[in-house]
Amino acid sequence: MAAIDLAAAEPLGAHETRAALALSDEARWNQTADDWTFFRTQGHVFAVRKDDRLVATAALLPYAPLGAAPGIAWISMVLVTATWRRHGLAKTLLKRCIDEADAAGVIPFLDATPAGAAVYVPLGFKPVADIVRLRRKRPNTPERTTAIEATAGDRDALLAFDRRATAADRSSLLDDMLSRPGTMLHAQASAVCLVRNGRCARHIGPLYAESEDAACALLDRAIADEPDSLIIDLMARNAGLRARLADHGFVEERPLQRMVRGYAALGDTDIAFATAGPEFG
């Protein structure tokens, strides 16, 4: 097999969304074409090609800082097609993301699988939280008959919770998700939750609440409106919510570990019960 010139990695092109989607499909992840468009237009996607075929990617998505705190960025979509694994592509592209983050003066985070964590530790990443992905297969429930319209107040509540939890401004990401067909925003006085379309299942998250009881109550309401398959990336410390999800038919699928390279303010992590997904944090 002829070698790939790793120095030839270039940004993902607008015409390559379908090829990028094929890579995440191969890895059995849940990204949509809208996700890939957001990575490409709002962040950086580095791509490696062989004979004009996309074979590997890695993305860096920066988030605007709040106040004087340093900005943060999310590394994700470190994907290599099966026939080109174990050729150093993933590590090279990951280092490219790290170099880009260093040059921009932002602190990189990522959500790692157990296999990925072993690669990231030697590159300076340290664990800060455990996450567990749970999945519910499509149940025998009726199709949704009414849509829930998100109000401006609901959006403002979501953004306020998100800023508290992340110590960053992710309004561009959340507004993009809110604008997509099928997105549902559930909110009450002390909790807020987003549910959006994914490639293979609807994704619940982020989910923020002032208490676990409030998170459970809002999650019950959100799930009742969802007849489709669902996934959620739950902060693993929340044993009560984990048990509630099991009662709803969710099964644990894989562990993830949140990691950071360097020091960054973490925000009020106690109010974060589920993430926007490992590709977004």
Keywords:
281 residues; Aminopeptidase; 13-stranded mixed β-sheet; single chain; 13 strands; alpha+beta; 2 domains; 31% helix; globular
What does this structure look like?
Helices cover 31% and strands 31% of the residues. Helix 7 links the parallel strand 10 and strand 11. The chain is globular, with a radius of gyration of 19 Å. The chain has 2 domains: 121 residues, Gcn5-related N-acetyltransferase (GNAT) (Aminopeptidase); 142 residues, Aminopeptidase, CATH 3.40.630. The model has no long low-confidence stretch (mean pLDDT 91). The chain is built from 8 helices and 13 strands. Strands 1, 2, 3, 4, 5, 6, 7, 8, 9, 10, 11, 12 and 13 form a 13-stranded mixed sheet that branches. With 281 residues, the chain is of the alpha+beta class.
Largest sheet: 13 strands, mixed
What amount of the residues lies in strands? 25-35%
| Distance separating the two termini | 36 Å
Weakly predicted, low-confidence segments: none
Estimated helix fraction: 25-40%
Indicate how many domains the architecture comprises.
Answer: 2
The CATH architecture term of the largest domain is 3-Layer(aba) Sandwich
Q: What oligomeric assembly is this protein in?
A: single chain
**For the record, what CATH class of the largest domain applies?**
Alpha Beta
Shape: globular
Backbone structural class: alpha+beta
**Average pLDDT over all residues:** 91
Query: Radius of gyration, Cα only, in angstroms?
Result: 19 Å
CATH topology name of the largest domain, in short, is: Aminopeptidase
Tell me the total number of β-strands: 13
State the order of secondary-structure elements, H for helix, E for strand: EHHEEEHEHEHEHEEEHEHEE
Number of helices: 8
